[in-house]
Amino acid sequence: MPKESSPFINNTDNDKGNLYDGKNMALFEEEMDSNPMVSSLLNKLANYTNLTQGVKEHEEADDDEGLITVPALGTLIGVYLPCLQNILGVILFLRLTWIVGTAGIMESLAIVVMTCSCTMLTAISMSAIATNGVVPAGGSYYMISRSLGPEFGGAVGLCFYLGTTFAGSMYILGTIEILLTYIVPSAAIFKAEKKEDEAEALLNNMRVYGTCCLTLMSLVVFVGVKYVNKLALVFLACLCFFCFICLLGNRTLQNHNFDQCLKTMEVDNVTVTTKLWSLFCDSPDLNATCNEYFTLNNVTVIQGIPGLTSGVIRDNIWGDYGPNGMLVENKHQASEPAADTSQDIYMPYVANDITTFFTLLVGIYFPSVTGIMAGSNRSGDLRDAQKSIPIGTIMAIATTTFIYISSVILFGACIEGVVLRDKFGDSVKGNLVIGILAWPSPWVIVIGSFFSCCGAGLQSLTGAPRLLQAIARDGIVPFLQVFGHGKANGEPTWALLLTGGICEIGILIASLDAVAPILSMFFLMCYLFVNLACALQTLLRTPNWRPRFKFYHWALSFLGASLCLSLMFISSWYYALVAMLIAGCIYKYIEYRGAEKEWGDGINGLSLNAARYALIRLEEAPPHTKNWRPQMLLLLNLDSDHAVKHPRLLSFCTQLKAGKGLTIVGSVLEGTYMTKEAEVKKAEQNIKSSMTTERTKGFCHVVASSNLRDGFSHLIQTAGLGGMKHNTVLMAWPGTWKQSNDPVSWKNFIETVRETTAAHQALLVAKNVDSFPTNADRLGQGTIDVWWVVHDGGLLMLLPFLLRQHKVWRKCKMRIFTVANMDDNSIQMKKDLQMFLYHLRLDAEVEVVEMHDSDISAFTYEKTLVMEQRSQMLKQMQLSRTEREREIQSITDSSRSSIRRNNQTGATGSESGPIRELEDTQEDEVAQLIHDRNTASHAALNDKADAGPDRVHMTWTKDKFLTERNRNRAEASMGVRDIFNMKPNQSNVRRMHTAVKLNEVVVNKSQGAHLVLLNMPGPPKNRGGDENYMEFLEVLLEGLNRVLLVRGGGREVITIYS
């Protein structure tokens, strides 16, 4: 038995010959190209390698190695340790002791619990998203963008990028602070000669060294990311390894320039002054002039780390906030205040370098809990990402939370408060406060924290450009596309340059305390949207939402989102507003200029649910008159290339709607959908393109139908959904109806008028639509003239008001004309109309036009007669065409009879050949004739009123044909004589008289108007007068440029009530 082949989704040309050899699945073999067998699909999925555009590929690209191996990192190495390294960072070493001393144990615990709860809830939401399918390269950006759509994804992705970039700035500043403050203070380029200049000198040193460090790190990243990955292991190892102070009165002294905490001492029975004396006095002599506070108070040596049993925890329970320059004091020490405190800032006291308050500390501390995305960002390198990411991330957060809480309690219980509040360790000889706890030497923790900050900075400079490259390659932000390119192996060179530039901004700020709240904002915004994405997917219950991680709930996600938002405003309300403004601007930019992406995101699901809910609510009751607005169905005609014939109709619709309400643009192609599918799609694309050009917001719908009349009828009946259905039809006047030999065009138009009336929908017909203004035009001073002849719901009043909302028509004034007969009081009518418009809150000029009864003119009589004669002649032409059809059928029948006779007499083959050809030719003519009959106008075939005996299809015998032909010829000759002797119908004469007189008045008053709105009379109930109806309308509109015929839908659309 031949072996079955399993075609893949993308077969090569060589495979097409033996596409399928087996017989078991022969029923499906024709669809194997598009629908592969399950075995081949599973084989593809089993061989799928989820490698990120990350470390391994770049290493192999650099080393020119062969095959890419399947990633095999487990939970510990792949998620837990990277998260631990990212979370335990610069803030733990440089600021946690200061935060505990300033905020106190209780408020510090509140900060830790708030921030860690925020990251734990975010990790739960992130675990649900990360385990809901494969997460390729891009990590958190990929998760958010595919869950919330390109707009939110791009906005939050760029915020996350900025946060990661500023995190690089913060780590570099932390590195330089450790270097210049604790390792080699003598390396400072700028040195302060006075104490008050120390802060500025430190900032300048940070800027210079920070820039150099950034350049060096960028070069390392540029050379290759593999070095960062290898160095990271060293830095992590450094991270895992981890006195007495002098007080003057109750003030803490900077212990840099003296060895002994004494004013004087005995040397060889002689009292001499110490180095401390010379700091406060103008000379080393005992009779020197000294600082008043120095004179009044004694120096005291206290233990900096008294230990757990000392009871210092009671002093550190509550915070000690203060302004910039406030001295760090021990409240329990005795002190004599000095009268003059103006010189205190020049003395070697430990003082606050910034104003401290609770919310500031929240913003500074939050970066110490970020880094929870490290595992999800490396999802491509994990053996089982859906198992490792939740376990590793949550365990890392739990571990670091325990470390932070225990550190806060132990620092507060063991270390003296003045030492905790000493940010730079000036009271402990310039040592890192957390370093004095280290065993066997403070250098262990100093060097460890230095390398840890270096590693974190390198990882930020590695991750941020890749994130920007992922966003740029998605193509959702057009101006970022240049950053999607890089070196041949994919290294993001241009993105690295931009990252370095933004990072330099943070370094020029130079203060770790000022940069930390900035990146807090961006990270918090990212975490906020991760929580929102999870909550949204859970509440919408989309079929694809099936996370393997089950320990999540929408309420937890909402709580996490609320906590993120609260922390943003707690940390810094103005930074929060700026971050939101940046994200909002990016969102709107992507919405208007970005590429269209369909990622099956949750926002689309939310929109569908909201739309469904709104539609169900709308269908409960029809809209009130106050809420009525024209919901448009725009019927377009297309040319032979399926392009829009009258694009100005779309412009007019845009001006009328001003972007509000429903607009459905429809058209019809003749034929069946099976044969016209490609043309229908092409027509839809052309219409959508025209809608974009004319800025028409709405929906497009093209249908294929056996004839135009049925197609437009189906659109009028079925367009829209539920409560969102159209109530107004807009179409163009058939301008060439007189020139066309085929009556289908104007008959379709009249049938559309009848069907809109039957459906109780309003109808707007634009005449000379190609002369209507475009959206770019600005009409100057002019008028929109309304001719209110009959009242059909007030649509005539409402349309000019809506048009004047658009900038094209804004400068036009509205004029309303109404017609008074002889027995009407025109003065009273004008007053009543003005009062009516006043109650309608419409600003318009009012004029009542009197139409006097006058005799019907000879011109009107003659015009009516010509109209009826033309109509009669067209009927005669139709009759003569019918006669020709019957004559052809008679010839066909005669030839068939002779063929039968010849066959019966045994004619030769040479004689029967021409006869057979004649028969074939005649049968083709008959077939063509029958086809012509069957594809005649729908109205002519289906209108029973017009279907006479001459319309019945039957087979004619020769005798019957001759009799009928003679009768028709007699009728035709009589009909021709009657045309020139006929008298016009009196009803038609009266209608023509009205059209002529009304046209004279309208042309006289409104010929110079920018637009004329006029009541549209209804079509005749007797279909025999359809052509006369078109003639009446033509006469009524003669001599006017832009005209909009308005026919109401049978309900009030405007009201005087509020």
UniProtKB/TrEMBL annotation:
Organism this protein belongs to: Oncorhynchus mykiss (Rainbow trout)
Domain Amino acid permease/ SLC12A: 79-239, 352-633
Chain intervals with Low complexity compositional bias: 889-905
One Gene Ontology term from the biological process aspect of the record: potassium ion homeostasis
Gene: slc12a7b
Alphabetical list of Gene3D superfamilies matching this protein: Amino acid/polyamine transporter I (1.20.1740.10)
Alphabetized InterPro entries for the sequence: AA-permease/SLC12A_dom, KCL_cotranspt, SLC12_C, SLC12A_fam
Protein known as: Solute carrier family 12 member 7b
GO molecular function: potassium:chloride symporter activity
Spans traversing the lipid bilayer: 77-97, 109-135, 155-185, 206-225, 231-249, 354-374, 394-420, 432-458, 518-539, 551-568
Top-rank lineage group of the source organism: Eukaryota
Residue span, SLC12A transporter C-terminal domain: 647-765, 776-901, 983-1058
UniProt-annotated location(s): Cell membrane
Topology versus the membrane: Multi-pass membrane protein
GO cellular component: plasma membrane; synapse
